[in-house]
Request: fold
Amino acid sequence: TTDRVVYAPGQTVFADARVSNSMNRSVQVWFRSGCQVRLLVRDPAGRVWNDGYPEGLTCTAAETNWTLHVGDVRSFHYEWNEDTDNGSAVPIPGIYVLRFELNTVCCHDDPPISFIPFAEALVFIQAASAPSLGGGGRATMGTQGPSVPDEEPSASPGAGASSRFADLAFL
Reply:
């Protein structure tokens, strides 16, 4: 989830996601490298503005893994400052897709499991002189696509993460 849907230019976007195992058995998840998760930012046309890897980050080439036991949850918190990979501001006004991804080769399980390794949320960044659109609600990431529930804004927008999380679940 994100803490709101509409942002002013330069306002930090807070996003939370979690990966959980709601199956009745443990799951081993394999990753292509030491860079296991990221928050990719793109526009609706598919242009990537921020690849989700901090500048200077070096990923190991070795496969890594997690074991998620029944009921286990891994939580992730991200802050995006409306910037591109090179540190400049993204074009405004604009709609952006925040995509939480697992860099996975998936699972070495028997029987095999089915899993979609991403979730997305839409955010809108207003023009510098635009009147406020309120920014109410929270954007929810889901493997079935983004949705925006009808909900009151957080009591303190930007002060922290939503109590709800985007789920990437092993079902």
